[in-house]
Write a structure and sequence with these properties.
The protein has 22 helices and 27 strands. By secondary structure, it is of the alpha/beta class. The chain folds into three domains: 260 residues, Aconitase, domain 3 (2-Layer Sandwich); 146 residues, 2-Layer Sandwich (Aconitase, domain 3); 175 residues, Aconitase, domain 4, CATH 3.20.19.10. Helix 2 packs across helix 3 and helix 21 packs across helix 22. The protein is globular. It binds alpha-methylisocitric acid and iron/sulfur cluster. Iron/sulfur cluster binds next to loops.
Length: 643
Amino acid sequence: MGLTIAQKIIKNHIISGEMVQGADIGLRIDQTLTQDATGTMAYLEFEAMGVPRVKTERSVAYIDHNTLQSGFENADDHRFIQSVAKKHGIYYSRPGNGICHQVHLERFGIPGKTLIGSDSHTPTGGGIGMLAMGAGGLDVAVAMGGGAYYITMPKMVRVNLTGRLSPWVAAKDIILAVLRVLTVKGGVGKIIEYAGEGVKTLSVPERATITNMGAELGATTSIFPSDEITREFLKAQGRESDWTELLSDADAQYDEVVEINLSELEPLAAAPHSPDNIKTIKELSGKKIDQVLIGSCTNSSYLDLMRVAAILKGKTVHPDVSLGIAPGSKQVYNMLAENGALADIIAAGARILECACGPCIGMGQSPNSGGISLRTFNRNFEGRSGTADGQVYLVSPETAAVSALAGVFTDARTLGEAVSIDLPKQFLINDNMVVPPVPEEEMDSVEILRGPNIKPFPSSEPLPESISASALLKVGDNITTDHIMPAGAKILPYRSNIPYLSKFCFAVCDEAFPERCREYKKGIVVGGSNYGQGSSREHAALVPLYLGIKAVIVKSFARIHMANLVNAGILPLTFENDADYDALDQMDVLTIPNVRELAGVGKLIVINETKGTEFTVNCDISERQREIILAGGLLDYTRENSK
Ligand code: MIC
Ligand code: SF4
């Protein structure tokens, strides 16, 4: 039987388990990346494992999230990461060099290799045919130490692209169209492969926009073939020797097929507050807007920003609109500066932001109260912009730019001929912002620089015989990690300070939750379906652990968050019958007997002491995860197993 692209890479990297759908498989990891908001914790964990040098082919530490330095915290964390990188064999991408996914695609990604990153948008690398996945920091630390990365062997989905995009319709509109079909939970447990004649019409940056936002489908990853277009891109990056061809076999089997005719697509937007709440720009057209932001790891490539510059050239941003633009990398920024496009952007009145995540993670540029903000980003979760009632719409760079000029949602197709930009034959290559590690023989001379913001991580305990605690919080469907552990300018600097972060846990849903946890000392969280979607931040598990959360009972989990709960030693449980969710109230006292014996083995009974009822839950974890849970989390498990 023929293989899909992802199956070929998995076959080359599998070190435990069998390539059978649903099986727990361990993969050898060739490359890792971290960003600074999750990196500090990941490197603390790496240090705790005691491995002197990374065992991967390439590990890169990026600084791109916490670049607002309104106190000593971020700068201290960056120094810590830089010193760890230098000592332990990791390349360090300095602040100013760009957003991890954009830079990694340009300078380090290699078709056919495996990559895990402590950031959920790591699948961007699928744009050049990598098997690239988001993971918790601890999983990345283990991979750096040479350990396998474990996933459930996913189902394979083929998205068949036919036709060709019409003028003014963009790659962003393709992924928004896929989100309309599959929704934010449609990709859970699946790898999305793009195939069909339409693939040949898409450049690497366009493919990367699509694989990047595959994270919003909840997918394990997304991937494009590595073909002549990939070769051209790598050649223009001076890396043609990194190219290999990687195509699916003609008789490859897929579990699901989605058909997208590119010729039929039109400009789209994801309306507040979910990336799958899709509307056409036509239906929104004429609606007044307040802010436009162009950038983020989804849409900040050279191609994107050259198109934006061409639209803005000779015009002025509408007086009622604030337009901010953040190039994705120093390469992009530098090229725009050299070819004059930056001058066109500045002349039009755009506010040029640092090449970093910036407003995408709530680091500045929060919209006005109730303000309508058009963003080329990938997430529009409630409150993420920093303004509780901000109305964020996710759109393509083209829609963003034409709307910024008009002051209202504008369907660019009404404006005549579309701008046409080609990828350069040669990108500007200057890796002077990437600091290589010292050679192994010099590593002892490197001192690790720790700031006072770094606090020890919470300790967990081995799983007890039974759990008895109150349901300290009950929340609904599609709870994101931005709900569980918000980010933003005020909180993000404390990513290495779990006690401080704990004050904000679930603040978007219920401000009193952290206080309740302190009062009750232990608790259970109850939720709906797709619990924990969004970011890979392990803080969304470590903070609840610190607050005494012993188990989370939901209708279904998002992949990375569930793995993070297990790594933290928190029991992930799912309702056998969704109706039991309705029958349960916040503050009910729940007892789960025999958890140590049954977790991961059989069904568990939960006794609702308050109501005098019982219901059944499942604990769908692998044998390996069972051992991790029994040990009280991955760190303890790793320590125990290395004795
Ligand atoms: C995000 O887009 O939510 C982030 C910030 O990049 C996160 C990582 C984090 O929380 O630090 C992600 O996507 O994993
Ligand atoms: Fe950064 Fe936003 Fe991309 Fe996350 S989604 S990596 S915050 S640009």
